[in-house]
């Protein structure tokens, strides 16, 4: 009985875990890649072992805690925020970085369109 209870609990945990790329269509991912290239790639890379630019490499961003990529000099505000990057948190950050993390070094003004933010988040969710 204890085993069944543990397995049921594990099943609930797995079912409640965020599903990243599965929430996104291929079209959204492609749109997000194009938007990332035009809006984000000047400061960020998504290449495996890619260079740290003005901003941190975003390869493997989903599930990572803000301000935690080794070797990048984050603002104290970004470290203190300690948010786990998921679809919702990333979309909020992309909308207005300074509002989401007051004191972040990121000078980006934000991406106004919600569909565009979701597309970028969808693209980044595939960059594991």
Task: Please explain how this structure is put together.
This protein has helices spanning 2-16, 26-40, 76-81, 87-95, 97-100, 114-125. With 128 residues, it is mainly alpha-helical. The chain is globular, with a radius of gyration of 16 Å. The termini are far apart. 48% of the residues lie in helices and 0% in strands. Residues 1-20 have low confidence and may be disordered.
Principal-axes shape call: globular
The ordered H/E elements are HHHHHH
What's the mean pLDDT score?
86
Strand fraction band?
under 5%
| Count of individual beta strands | 0
Described by strand count, sense and barrel closure, the largest sheet is: none
Distance between the termini: 37 Å
Task: Classify the helix fraction into a percent range.
Answer: 40-55%
Poorly predicted tracts of residues: 1-20
Structural class: mainly alpha
Strand and helix map with partners:
Layout: H1 2-16, H2 26-40, H3 76-81, H4 87-95, H5 97-100, H6 114-125
Helix pairs in contact: 2-6, 4-6
């Amino acid at each position: 009985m204890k085993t069944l209870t543990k397995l049921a609990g594990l099943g609930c945990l797995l079912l409640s875990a965020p599903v990243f790329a599965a929430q996104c269509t291929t079209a959204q991912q492609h749109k997000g890649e194009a938007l990332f290239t035009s809006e984000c790639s000047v400061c960020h890379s998504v290449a495996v072992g890619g260079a740290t630019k003005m901003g941190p490499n975003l390869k493997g961003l989903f599930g990572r805690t803000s301000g935690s990529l080794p070797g990048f000099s984050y603002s104290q505000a970004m470290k203190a925020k300690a948010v786990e990057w998921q679809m919702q948190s990333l979309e909020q950050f992309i909308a207005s970085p300074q509002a989401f993390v007051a004191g972040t070094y990121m000078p980006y003004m934000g991406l106004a369109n919600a569909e565009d933010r979701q597309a970028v988040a969808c693209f980044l969710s595939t960059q594991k």
